[in-house]
Each structure stands twice: as C-alpha cells, then as structure tokens.
Amino acid sequence: MVAGHKFKPRILGFLCNWCCYAGADLAGVSRYQYPPHIKVIRVMCSGRVDPAFVLRAFSNGTDGVFIGGCWLGECHYITEGNYDALSTMHLCRRLLELIGVNPERLRLEWVSASEGIRFAEVVTDFTEKLKELGPLGTGENGLKFKLEAVKNLLPYIKLVERERLRVRFETAEEYNEFFASDEVDRLFHELIVDKLTMSQIMVLLREKPLSTGEISEILGLNPSEVSRHLTSSARQGLVRFDANQKRFAPA
Ligand code: FES
C-alpha cells in the first residue's frame, strides 16, 4: 500500500440530480468541510451510470469513482434506477478485481438532498481510502491494456449481465450476497474470465508482435495460460505465429 499525505486522489463523482447532487450543494452552502478532490458530473439518476463511464474514468487516470444516488425506495423514477446502480457497481467491482484494480476504488453511496453532512462524510472517507491505496496503477501491472481489453469486451459483458446477472432484490445486503456467491463466481469464470484474458492479449498484440513470455510478463499471467489462449486463438484464425520474429501477431 502506498500511503502519502501529499497524494491528492483524483475522484470523479456521478451524482443523481435529485438527491446526492442536492446534498453536495447543501454541504457547500452549509460550509461543511470535505476534501476538494472530487469532480462532479450530474446525472438524472444513479441508474444512468453505465459501466463504460466507470471504465473510461479509470482509463483517464482517475484514482476513484464515486456514484451517489437516492436511498433505496426513494428513486424519483418508476424504474427505480438505484437498484440498477447497485448491479452496475457490483459488476464493475468484479471486473476491476479481475484486472487487478482494487474494487474499493469504486464506491456507491446513498445521500438524500437534506444530508449535506453525510455527503461531506462519505467523500472524506472515500478520499482517505484512496490515499491509503495510492495513485491508480500502483501495483496494477499493464493496467492500460487491461482497461482497454475490458472496454472492448463491454458489449458482450453487458449482454451476459442482462441475460444472467440481472436480478432484483429489495436490500443492498441481498445484492452483496448475490454478487459474492459461488453462482456468480462460476458465471464469471465460465462466461467472462477467458474472454477477458483473450481480449487483453489481442490489445497487446495490436501494439506489436510479442512472445508468450513477453505477454505473460506484461499481464502478470502464467505462461502456460497465455500459451493455451494463443493456441486456441490461432486455431480460430485470430492470431498467427511469425516464425522469423518468433512472436505472435494478429492474423
Ligand atoms: Fe436519484 Fe434515481 S433519481 S437514484
């Protein structure tokens, strides 16, 4: 862990217009103190936050992403988008974990329009957490390629989410339990993990031809795992082995 009292984390906050944004406004008007490192994007509902927004923020070097919504049961839309925000948060956290980014860099909180003090508290707490974790990329090998790979795979991941992971519970605890369950673990392994690894390898090979050893070093993967993916991709005609360079390249 890289602590550093001089490190000022860059935080991007997506705040629901009707509650958390108003709470942030109240915190300002009431002069509650909180660290000034958060840049705010106002959205009409926390359910509007797409996984692509979160990934793009991290790709742009943001150290932490904060989503602020209305308390469960108090969303201003009949679709109750804050339940979707919970699913999005869990999905993104699982994806971040898969590519070696600490999932605590993404936080979802409920803050009502009258809770200026709560807004100041949760932002302060999140900032402290990010200071503990250090700047994005600390100990997160080949992060740029990995984030690019997840972004490329996102249409497929969203399809998996819609077909297999979209659930509706009443409480945040039930969502926590579901996304930490063996069933979700199994689904991730069956449907996402291999595809994501292959997507990472393809992103790397588009930059320049690489050997199995070079790929495994950049991505921090076992060479035998990389070799398995390359063999299967070569069979599918996605990559080819250049005998002169002794390296793999896109077909
Ligand atoms: Fe605030 Fe939906 S309107 S979370």
In terms of topology, how is this protein built?
Blueprint: E1 11-16, H1 20-29, E2 38-43, H2 51-59, E3 64-69, H3 81-98, E4 106-110, H4 116-133, H5 143-165, H6 172-179, H7 182-207, H8 212-219, H9 223-235, E5 239-242, E6 247-250
Parallel strand pairs: 1-2, 1-3, 3-4
Antiparallel strand pairs: 5-6
Helix pairs in contact: 1-4, 2-5, 3-5, 3-6, 5-7, 7-9, 8-9
FE2/S2 (inorganic) cluster binds at residues 16, 18-19, 45-47, 69-70, 75-77, 81-82.
| Biggest beta sheet attributes | 4 strands, parallel
Structure class: alpha/beta
Strand order of the largest sheet: 2-1-3-4
Q: Assembly state here?
A: single chain
Description:
The chain has 251 residues and is of the alpha/beta class. It folds into two domains: 2-133, Rossmann fold (3-Layer(aba) Sandwich); 144-250, Winged helix-like DNA-binding domain superfamily/Winged helix DNA-binding domain (Arc Repressor Mutant, subunit A, Orthogonal Bundle). It has nine helices and six strands. The longest helix is centred in the C-terminal third of the chain and has 26 residues, at 182-207. It is elongated and about 70 Å long. The model has no long low-confidence stretch (mean pLDDT 92). It binds FE2/S2 (inorganic) cluster. FE2/S2 (inorganic) cluster (FES) is lined by residues 16, 18-19, 45-47, 69-70, 75-77, 81-82.
